[in-house]
């Protein structure tokens, strides 16, 4: 599994309706994309949930490197770059996945995720990365609104990422940056194994 995200920060007065329309028109194009676990079409809006910026920030969990490469070198990313400029793409190695067991995932697996949280921390030099991943996976709450949660690591920065999708508002105690989910493509999410990925 590979985690990936790019963030396009937009002017303060930008009409976020443009992004909403873009996602409404094009979001379903990846609903059956080979090698893609999920793509969460994320936005932050200035003044909403404490966000200081307007931002379009899609987040991906790739099941295969071939799928990720096909997207980055293909027409979809080329079109986005033509419209907004080529963004820097962050990439983390997937280390673990947890599926919620509440109504958001277990009892109603097709229920839409409506919010997301992303939390990153630098691992201290003396930290054991495997232990940090185990703790991060165990630290996801047993919450009825949890849809999917992932842990990944950037081994260049030794940065640990915790990403979670929620049905409804994210819990108040969920750390990190908060996003709205405009659409969720999940063609191969059920093929990503739960638990740690090593």
Explain how this protein is built:
22% of the residues lie in helices and 36% in strands. Strand 8 and strand 9 form a beta hairpin. It has an 8-stranded antiparallel β-barrel. It is of the alpha+beta class and 198 residues long. The chain has a single domain (2-196), classed as Alpha-Beta Plaits (2-Layer Sandwich). The chain starts with a strand and ends with a strand. The mean pLDDT is 92. It has 5 helices and 11 strands; from the N terminus they run E-E-H-E-E-E-H-H-E-H-E-H-E-E-E-E.
CATH architecture: 2-Layer Sandwich
- Summarize the amount of helix as a percent range: 10-25%
Going across the biggest sheet, name each strand in turn: 1-5-3-10-7-9-8-6
Q: Would you count the extended β strands for me?
A: 11
Q: Give the overall shape, derived from the CA principal axes.
A: globular
Which blocks of ≥5 consecutive residues have pLDDT under 50?
Answer: none
Number of domains: 1
Biggest sheet layout: 8 strands, antiparallel, barrel
Which structural category fits the helices and strands?
alpha+beta
Order of helices and strands: EEHEEEHHEHEHEEEE
Rg on CA atoms, Å: 16 Å
- What proportion strand? 35-45%
Summed up, the helix count is 5
Name of the CATH first level: Alpha Beta
Overall pLDDT level: 92
Instruction: For the record, give the distance between the C-alpha atoms at the N and C termini, rounded to a whole number.
Output: 11 Å
- How is the CATH topology named? Alpha-Beta Plaits
How do you describe this structure in short?
This protein has 198 residues and is an alpha+beta fold. The chain has a single domain (2-196), classed as Alpha-Beta Plaits. Helices cover 22% and strands 36% of the residues.
